[in-house]
Amino acid sequence: MMEGSIVELQSEVGTLQSQVVQATSTVGRLEARLEDAEGKSRRNNVRFLGFPERAEGSAVESFVESWIKDVL
Predict the structure, then answer these.
(1) How confident is the model at residue 14 (pLDDT cuts 50, 70, 90)?
(2) Which domain of life does this protein belong to (predicted)?
(3) Global pTM?
């Protein structure tokens, strides 16, 4: 009777270990996809450096537009 329980537990542990391996693999693939998506999102951004924090106020587009007109 005790041996049957041990065999069942060993089988369950094996199943759980297999599920952990699968979950770890899935997490790795999802992390890679997330990193790729974040990279694609960032590559289309334009960064303006050297401005004080919140210099644009709530009108980012008009701030950048007037700054470009002043500089160019």
Answers:
(1) very high
(2) Eukaryota
(3) 0.56
